[in-house]
Amino acid sequence: MTIKMSVLAACVAGAFLASPVVAAETGTTAPIPSSVKGQFVDLPGVHLWYLDSGGDGTPVVMLHANTGTSESWRYQFEPLIKAAYRVIAFDRRGRGQSTPADTGPQPGSVSEDLEALAAHLKLKPFYLVGVAGGGFVALDYAAWQPQRLRGLVVGASTGAVREAPVQDAIKRIEIPEIRKQNASYREVGPSYRAVNPKGVEEWLAIEHHSESQHGVKSQPMRQPNTFAKLETIKAPTLVVAAGADLLAPPSLMKLWVGHVANHEWAMVPESGHSIAWEKPDEFNALLLKFMAKH
Predict the structure, then answer these.
(1) How far apart are CA 21 and CA 59, in angstroms?
(2) Residue 4 burial (CB < 10 Å; 0-12/13-18/19+)?
(3) Cα separations in angstroms, 87 against 32, 35, 108, 200
(4) Measuring CA to CA, which of 20, 122, 173, 254 is 20 to 30 A from 246?
């Protein structure tokens, strides 16, 4: 990336970070707290954009879905910071502001980028939170780097588990042509879309921002997620299902969650796939309660 492009990207990201958005439940504006700093770091294979609240609190690292960017976590930053956690989120390589670099192999994996960031920031053991496609990565990383984690939270996710029971269920519930439609139809629940058009508009703005790079290959798992792999995860794990999720309904998630030995189960009614965005109060309460115990 040229210096000019880097400066432009930083300006765009800064504007996005500072802009107020419509709060998910109240209709009021809720900008990311000013204590959260957005910055780039050069890691192997990636010029990575991340948000970091800083401080000495226990870190919480949040992984966005296959849609969106680190901005998708804006309803989690303030409550977690108030609870004395250090909150970190980053854009995946090829999404938002994080761009591939010639300093390492391409496309790499999100787990490897996360590990490089954790090493760069010298993070003490942290909580890892991933929703939807971020949940795929969270499981991948938890099996690979167990010593890094205090706890694991996976929300609204198929887990990208390769075994036939999960894959067959995914095929059975797939709505024909849905992936050709506006992303909000599959990713955002109908209850939320019915009552919060401004919230949907903001969600779509973040998704549009995340797709600003074209021709960048998606990052695969470091290793495929399998039942056997999930059985090696030792971290205390909270699995949160979304009651109105078209892509990973509770019954589908139950096909894999039993293979994670040390897990707790919760469900948020009426939420679609974008659980942390649609139902932040409920999601945050579950997250904070889990972390307080572990």
Answers:
(1) 25
(2) exposed
(3) 11, 10, 24, 24
(4) 20
Residue 198's CB is within 10 A of a number of other CB atoms, namely 12
Gyration radius from the chain CA atoms:
18
Count how many domains the chain has. Answer: 1
Please check whether residue 158 is in contact with residue 249, taking contact to mean a CB–CB distance below 8 angstroms: no
Between CA 8 and CA 283 the distance in angstroms is: 34
Phi, psi for 278 (deg, rounded to 5): -75, -40
- Per-residue confidence in pLDDT tens, the chain, 294 aa: 333 334 444 444 444 454 443 444 444 446 789 889 999 999 999 999 999 999 999 999 999 999 999 999 999 999 999 999 999 999 999 999 999 999 999 999 999 999 999 999 999 999 999 999 999 999 999 999 999 999 999 999 999 999 999 999 999 999 999 989 999 999 999 999 999 999 999 999 999 988 878 888 889 999 999 999 999 999 999 999 999 999 999 999 999 999 999 999 999 999 999 999 999 999 999 999 999 999
pTM for the predicted model, two decimal places:
0.90
CATH of the domain at 254: 3.40.50.1820
Q: CB pairs under 8 A, 24+ apart, for 82-85?
A: 83/288, 84/55, 84/57, 84/58, 85/53, 85/57, 85/58, 85/59, 85/60, 85/127, 85/291
Give residue for tokens 């894959």. 167
Structure tokens at 269: 């009614």
Q: How far apart are CA 149 and CA 39, in angstroms?
A: 24
Domain that holds residue 274: 3-293
- Contacting residues for 234 by C-beta, under 8 A, at least 6 apart: 146, 261, 262
